[in-house]
Amino acid sequence: MAAQSRQVRIGMIGYGQMGRIHAYAYRAIPIFYDPLPAEPVLQAVADVVPGVAERAAARAGFSWHTEDWRRVVESPDVDVIDICTPNSEHLPVLEAAIAAGKHIYCEKPLCTNLKDAQRILQAATKAGILHQIVAEYRFLPALMRARDMVREGLLGEIFHFRGLYLHAGYVDPRRPIAWRLRREATGGGVLMDLGPHIIDQMRVLVGNASEVQGNLETFIRQRPLAERPNEMGSVDVEDSAQALLRFPGGAVGSLEVSRCATGAEDELRVEVHGSRGAIRFNLMDPNWLYWYDLGKPEAERGFTRVATVQRYPAPAVAPAPKFSIGWTRAHVASQFSLVESIASGRQPVPSFADAVAMHAHIDAIYRSAAGAGWTAVPHVE
Amino acid sequence: MAAQSRQVRIGMIGYGQMGRIHAYAYRAIPIFYDPLPAEPVLQAVADVVPGVAERAAARAGFSWHTEDWRRVVESPDVDVIDICTPNSEHLPVLEAAIAAGKHIYCEKPLCTNLKDAQRILQAATKAGILHQIVAEYRFLPALMRARDMVREGLLGEIFHFRGLYLHAGYVDPRRPIAWRLRREATGGGVLMDLGPHIIDQMRVLVGNASEVQGNLETFIRQRPLAERPNEMGSVDVEDSAQALLRFPGGAVGSLEVSRCATGAEDELRVEVHGSRGAIRFNLMDPNWLYWYDLGKPEAERGFTRVATVQRYPAPAVAPAPKFSIGWTRAHVASQFSLVESIASGRQPVPSFADAVAMHAHIDAIYRSAAGAGWTAVPHVE
Amino acid sequence: MAAQSRQVRIGMIGYGQMGRIHAYAYRAIPIFYDPLPAEPVLQAVADVVPGVAERAAARAGFSWHTEDWRRVVESPDVDVIDICTPNSEHLPVLEAAIAAGKHIYCEKPLCTNLKDAQRILQAATKAGILHQIVAEYRFLPALMRARDMVREGLLGEIFHFRGLYLHAGYVDPRRPIAWRLRREATGGGVLMDLGPHIIDQMRVLVGNASEVQGNLETFIRQRPLAERPNEMGSVDVEDSAQALLRFPGGAVGSLEVSRCATGAEDELRVEVHGSRGAIRFNLMDPNWLYWYDLGKPEAERGFTRVATVQRYPAPAVAPAPKFSIGWTRAHVASQFSLVESIASGRQPVPSFADAVAMHAHIDAIYRSAAGAGWTAVPHVE
Amino acid sequence: MAAQSRQVRIGMIGYGQMGRIHAYAYRAIPIFYDPLPAEPVLQAVADVVPGVAERAAARAGFSWHTEDWRRVVESPDVDVIDICTPNSEHLPVLEAAIAAGKHIYCEKPLCTNLKDAQRILQAATKAGILHQIVAEYRFLPALMRARDMVREGLLGEIFHFRGLYLHAGYVDPRRPIAWRLRREATGGGVLMDLGPHIIDQMRVLVGNASEVQGNLETFIRQRPLAERPNEMGSVDVEDSAQALLRFPGGAVGSLEVSRCATGAEDELRVEVHGSRGAIRFNLMDPNWLYWYDLGKPEAERGFTRVATVQRYPAPAVAPAPKFSIGWTRAHVASQFSLVESIASGRQPVPSFADAVAMHAHIDAIYRSAAGAGWTAVPHVE
Q1: Distance between A298 CA and the closest CA of chain C, angstroms
Q2: How large is the average pLDDT for residues C225-235?
Q3: Is C379 a residue whose pLDDT tops 90?
Q4: How many CB atoms neighbour CB C76 within 10 A?
Q5: Would you state the pLDDT for residue A5?
Q6: Could you tell me which residues come within 8 angstroms of residue C163 by beta carbon, excluding any fewer than 6 positions away?
Q7: What span, in angstroms and rounded, lies between the C-alpha atoms of A145 and A355?
Q8: Mean pLDDT along residues B104-130
Q9: Do D306 and B299 touch (CB under 8 A)?
Q10: Cross-chain residue pair B261–A278, CB shorter than 8 Å
Q11: Does D303 contact C at CB distance below 8 Å?
Q12: Which of A369, B41, B362, C193 is most buried, taking the most CB atoms under 10 A from its CB?
C-alpha cells in the first residue's frame, strides 16, 4: 500500500467490537473513495488484554502492537489516536493524547460526565489538536440527506421531533453485570450508551433543546455478577430513559432510549414534522429516507421512499449507488471524513464541542429525572 | 326488516360526520353478524340545523326526525340515545337522557372536563341506565387481539408503552377557528379530541397510569375566524400534547397526540414491550398486529404480522376473515356490542366509568403541563 | 326510507357470502354518497336453500323473498337482477332476466366459458338492457387512481405488467371437493375464480393482451368428497394458473393466480413499469398506491405512498378521506356506480363486454396450457 | 499482516466495479471472521487499461500489477485467479488459468454460452483445480437461512417459486451501447447479466427446473453508440426476460429479469410457497427473511420478519448480529468461503458445475423464446 503522497497514521487504543469495526473501516476507505485525500495507515494498536493487540495486528495489519496504550500515544509515528476503550477509560487516554499533541478520534460518549467533557474540550482547543467524536449516523446517507433537507428549508418550520434508539440486549435477567451495567465504568446506563447517537441526530436536525423533562427506569434491578455468576448484584444504571423536549424555536419533541425494548434489534428511529413537510427514518431499513412534501400538489403527496445510498457520501465510488448498505458503511464514511479533515488541517465535524453538547443534554435529563422537573440544557459553547 | 323478537330502538342526537357513520354501522350490523341478539332500529334523529335531520331520515331510514333533541330523548319509542353532537353539547343531552331513563351511547369525550364527567357517571349509575362511551378502536380486530395477548400474559411483565395519535388537519394556517378550535365548545384541543382514543388503548393494554408529566404546544396561535374569515382570532387550545407516563407496576410510557403532524393521515400507533414479547400496531395498516414472541426459539423470533381481521369480532359472518377491513368496521363492532349488551341487560364496555378514566388522565396531563410537574392521575373509580 | 324521486329496485338471486356483501353495499350507499342519483331498494331475494331467502329478507330488509328465482326475475316490481349464484347457475338466470328485460348486475365470471359469455352479451345488447359485471377492484380508490395515472400518461409507454392474485384456502388437503372444485359447476379452477379480477386490472391498466402462454397445475389431485367425507375424489380443476403476456404496444407481462399460495390472505398485487414511472399495489395494504415518478428531479425520486382513500370515488361523503378502508368499500362504490348508471339510463362499466374479454383471456390461457403454445387472445368486441 | 500459517494468494484479472468490490471483500475477511483458515493476500492485479492496475495496487494493496493478465495467470506466487473482466473475456483467462493449474474464482456468467461453459467445467475437473463461480447471494444471511429452512423441510412440498431481479439502469434511451449491450461481448442481455443470480437462487431453493417457457423483449432497440454518441446503433440483446418454470417434483414457478423496471434499484425478490410454509425476500430489505409457518397454531400464524444478519454466516465476528448489513457483506462471505475451501483443499460451492447449470437454464430460455415452446432444461451434470 503506497504511492499516496500523504498518510494519516492511526494508533488505536482498545480493540474490542468497536476497535475491530474501526480497523475494518480504515481498510475499506482506499477502495471506496476516489480521490483519496490521504492514505489511512493502521500504524499501532494497544489493548490491555494480553494477546489481543498482537492478534489485532496480525489480522488487521497494524504495523506494531502493545499492551501499553501510553506507548502508542507517545509514539512519533502516530498521527491520530483512535479511542475504543470503555467510557471511563477515555479520560486518561484523552488527556495523554492531548498532551502529546495527537489528533483524536474518540468513541462516544466522550467522558462519563459533562464536567470532564468540558475540561477535555478546553484542553483540546488550547492544544490546537483536531478532534472528532464518533457519531457515525451523521454519515449514513439517509441521515445526511435528512440533514440537508432540513437545512434547505424543505421541512419549513419544525413542529415535532421524535427520536428513539431501542435495543433489547438487557431483557434477559440472566445477563450479568459487566462494565456497561456499572456506573463507575460508564457514568450512566442506556442514556450514556445510546443517548449520544439520538441526541446527536436531534441536534443535527432541530438543534439543541432548550429544556428537557426526563424519566428513568431500571426494570431489572438485580442481576448476576459477571465475575461471580452465582452472586446477585444491584444494577446502578438505568435500562430506559425518556425525555420531553422543548426547543428555542417553538418545536416540541421527545427522546427515548432503552436496552429492554423486547423485539428491537438496533432500532434508531427519527421522525420530524414541519410546516412544509416531514421525514421518517428507521435504522432497520437504513437505505431509505421517507419524505413527505407538503409543497407537492395534493394528488402527489405521500411519504416517498427516497433512495439515498451512496448519493451520499461523495466522493465514494463503491459500492454503486443502487446497492443496499448497512451499519458498517457509516463508519467508513465517518472515518473518511476524519482522514479528509486531518489531511487538510480542518477541524472535523462532529467535534468534541458536539460531544460536550451531547453530555449537556444527558446531564440535564439526569438532573430532571432526579427531581428537578423541567430543566434547562446548559449552554456549553 | 322484521322477524326479530327483540329490537333496540336508536334515537340519534346530532347528524354530522359521526352521526352518519353511526347510522351506517347500525345498518351494517344485521348483515355482518349472526346470530343477532336484537335488531337495531333507526327510530329517530334530531339535529338543530334545519333540514339535516329530515335528510338523514330519508337517507338512513330513521322512522322520524326533529330539530328538537328533547323530543327524541323524551319519546317512549326510543331505547338508546346516541349522542353525536360537539363536546360541549353532550352535557344537557346526557342529563336529559339519564332523567328520562334512556340508555346512552355517547361519542368521546363524554364531557369537557373531569368534574362533569364524574357527575354524569354518578347520575347514570344512580338511574340504573346502561351506558357506553364510543371508543371504537377497542373493537378493531388487531387491537382486540392485542388486548387478549396482554391478558393471556403473552407479553409478560410490561416495560414500555408508546401511544401516538397523529393527524395533520391543522397544519394549514388558513384553517379557520371553528368549534374544534374553541375551548368553550370542546374543553381542550387535540388532547380532548384524539387523547381519549390513545388513553383508552393505554388503559386496555397496560392499565391506568399512576403519574404523568405533560407538555402542550400551540404552533399556530392566530387563525382566521370561521364566521369572519377576514378577521384573525386567537386559538385557545393546544395543537400538540405529549406526556411521559409511569405505571403502578413499574412500566414507563409516553403519549403523543397532534393535529399538526404533517404527513399523517389517521395515524394511531401503539407499541408495547414486555419481558416475554412485544406488539406494534398502526391504524394506517389496520388489518395486522405485529407480534414478537420471546418465547419462540431464537431462530424463529421476529415480528410476526398476525392476521386479525374478523377472527375478531365474533360472531361476525362478513366479510370473510381473509379480507381487508377499515375504520368503519370498528364502529360496526362497537355498536354490535352495544346492541348485544342492551339486549341482554348487561352494562356495556367501555362504559362511562372508562370515559371518566379518560378524563382523569386528560385532567392530570393538563395540570402537569400547566406547571404541576409529575402529577398523580386522580383515582376515579 | 323515502323521499327519493327515483328508486332502483334490486332482485337478488343467491344469498351466500357474496349476496350478503351486495346487500350490505346497497344499504351503505345512501349514507356514503351525496348527492344520490337514485335510491337502491332491496326489493326481493331468492335462494334455493330453504329458509335462506326468508332469513335474508328479515336481516337485510328485502321486501319479499322466495325459493324460486324465476319469480324474482319475472316480477314487475324489480328493476335489476343481481346474480350471486355459483358460476354454472348464472346462465339460466341471465337468459331469463334478459328475456324479461331486466337490467343485470352479475358476479364474475359471467359464464363458465367464452362461447356462452359471447351469446349472453349478444342477447343483452339486442334486448337493450343495461348490464354490469362485478369487478369491484375497479372501484377501489387506489386502483382508480392507478387507472387515471396511466390514462394521463404519467407512466409513459408501458414496459412491464405484473399481476398476481394469491389465496391459500386450498393448501389443506382435507378441504373437501365442493362446487368450487368441480369443473361442471365452475368451468375451471382458480383461473375462473380469481382470474377475472386480475385480468380486469390488466385490461384497465395496459389493455388486452395480444398473446398468452399459459401453465396450469393441480397440486392436490385427490380430496375428500364434500358429500361423502370418507371417500376421495379427483379434482378436475387447477389450483394454480400462470401466463406470460405480450401486448400489442410492445409491453410484456405476467399473470399468476393460485389458491395454494401458503401465507397469502387475499393478495391481489399489481405492478406496472413504464418509460416515465411505475406503480405498485397490494390489496393487503389497500389504502395506498405506490408511485414512482421518473419525471421528478433525481433527488426527489422514489416510490411515494400516495393516499387514495375516498379521494376516489366521488361523490362519497363518508368515511372522511383520511380514514382507512377495506374490501367491502369497493363493493359499495361498484354498486353506487350501478345505481347511478341505471338511474341515468347509461350503460354501466365494466359491462358484459368486459366480462367477455375476461373470458377471452381465460379461454386463451386454457388453450395455451393445453398445448397450444403462444395463443392469440380472441378478438371479441 | 502476518502470523497466519497459511496464505491464499489472489491474482485478480480486471479491476472495474467488481474487481474493486472483490478487493474490498478480501481486505474485510481477516477482520470479520475468527478463526481464519488462511490469510487472503492481494498478490497481483492485471487490467488492460493503462494505469488501472497500478492504481489498484496502490489503493487496495496488491503486491504487484501488470497490464498483461497472462503474467498473473502464469506467476508462481499466485494461488487463485479471480476473474472480473467482461463476460466474453472470461474464456481465454479460464483456459489459461486451468492450464496453469490455478484455482479460479470467476464472476458470473462463467462463459457466454452453455457449450463453452461445459467445456471449461470438463477442463477444470480434469485439471483437478478448485473453482468457484461468484453467486454472492448464496452468502447473504437471509438467503442462507432460506436455503436451510427449505432443506430442513420447514416449507414442506414446494408449490410455487417466484424469482425476480429488477434493475432500471437501461430505461433512459440515451444510455449508449457499451459492452453490456453487445451480444458479442456478453452472449446475451439481461438474462445473461442478472439471470445467473436468480437462477442460482431458484436452484438453491427448489432445484433445477425441468422445463421452461421463455419470453424476451427489447424495449429500446436503437441507442447512441458509446464510441460515436451522435450515431445510433441497434441493440442486439434483450432488456427483459421472463420464463414460466416446471419442476420435476410438481412445483411451478416463474422468473423475470429486467433492466427497464423503472423505479427498481437492485431488486432481487424471491418467494416460495410450500405445503407447510412460505418465505419471501427482497434485496432492498436485505436484513430480513419473511417466513410463514403453517405449522404454528392458527392464532400465531403470519409472516415473521426473521432477523438473519450475521446469525449467518459463522464464524463471523463482525459486525454484531443486531446490525444491518448490505450487499457488500455477501461478497465478504462468498470470498471467505472461497478462502476456507482453498485452505482445506475442498471444492468450493457454488462451483463451475453450478455455473454450467445456470447456463443450461439460460440456454433453454433463449431457445424457448426463439420459438421452441416449452423447452427441457439440458441435463448437464
Answers
A1: 10
A2: 95
A3: no
A4: 7
A5: 58
A6: C198, C199, C201, C202, C253, C254, C255, C256, C269, C270, C271
A7: 22
A8: 98
A9: yes
A10: yes
A11: yes
A12: B362
- pLDDT of C4: 43
Predicted local distance difference test score (pLDDT) of residue A381: 63
Q: Which of C217, C246, C252 to mutate to test the interface with D (most CBs of D within 10 A)?
A: C252
- Report the number of secondary-structure helices (H) and strands (E) in chain C: 11, 17
Using H for helix, E for strand and C for coil, what is the string for D62-110? Answer: CCEEECCHHHHHHCCCCCEEEECCCHHHHHHHHHHHHHCCCEEEECCCC
Q: pLDDT (tens digit, 9 = 90+) per residue, D142-189?
A: 999 999 999 999 999 999 999 999 999 999 999 999 999 999 999 999
How big is the CA angle at C208 (ends C203 and C213), to the nearest 5 degrees? 110
Question: Are B306 and D300 in contact (CB < 8 Å)?
Answer: yes
Q: CB contacts < 8 Å between B and D, how many?
A: 38
Task: Give residue C136's pLDDT band: very low, low, confident or very high (50, 70, 90).
Answer: very high
Report the residue of A273, A275, A368 to disrupt the B interface, i.e. the one with the largest count of B CBs within 10 Å: A273
Q: What pLDDT is attached to residue B42? A: 98
- Dihedral sign, Cα of residue B78, residue B84, residue B90, residue B92: negative
Question: Can you read off the three cell numbers belonging to residue B141?
Answer: 380486530
H helices of chain A, in order, are 17-32, 52-60, 69-74, 90-99, 114-127, 141-151, 183-186, 190-193, 195-205, 327-344, 352-367
User: What is the tens place of the pLDDT at every residue in B299-318?
Assistant: 899 999 998 876 677 788 88
What's the average model confidence in pLDDT over D244-264?
Answer: 97
Q: Which chains touch B (3 or more CB pairs under 8 A)?
A: A, C, D
Comparing CA positions, the residue from D351, D107, D358 lying closest to residue D208 is: D358
Nearest by CB: B327 against C1, C2, C324 = C324
Q: Which of B298, B293, A282 is nearest to D311 (CA)?
A: B298
Q: B329 touching C, CB under 8 A?
A: yes
Task: Find chain D residues with C-beta within 8 A of C276's C-beta.
Answer: 262
Q: Of B333, D303, D279, give the one whose Cα is nearest residue C284.
A: D303
pLDDT at position D311, please?
67
- Report the amino acid identity of residue D215: N
Q: Which three cell numbers stand for residue A375?
A: 430543566
Hey, what domains does chain A have and what are their CATH numbers?
7-136 (3.40.50.720), 140-321+351-375 (3.30.360.10)
Between the alpha carbon of residue D376 and those of residues C297, D138, D248, the distances in Å are 46, 25, 11
The model carries a pTM of 0.96
- pLDDT at residue C2 tops 50: no
Range from A52-56, B3-7, D71-75, D268-272 carrying the lowest mean pLDDT: B3-7
Q: Does C307 touch chain B (CB under 8 A)?
A: yes
C-alpha dihedral sign at D147, D152, D154, D157: positive
Which whole number is the average pLDDT over B139-151? 95
pLDDT at C311: 67
Q: Is C61 on the interface with B (CB under 8 A)?
A: yes
Query: What's the confidence (pLDDT) of residue C317?
Result: 85
Residue range C256-266: mean pLDDT, rounded: 97
Residues of C in contact with D219 (CB under 8 A): 157, 159, 250, 275
